[in-house]
Give the backbone structure.
Amino acid sequence: DTVRAFTSGTGYIVEIDLVLPRDTPLHEAHDIGESLQHFLETTAGLNVSRAYVHLDFETQHDPKLHL
């Protein structure tokens, strides 16, 4: 739904709002969010020092509410 990246020192802080199907089981949603966070923070060349992954099941919310 939304991706933001902010500079932080020599790297980036990334914030992602990810929309999943409403019926996604909690354990699957958790694993998806955690895997994405881990990927962003550990992949060489991305230079992401911290990634925040927000999971939701709809797109009608205001992304600014996560600030």
Remarks:
- The radius of gyration is 13 Å.
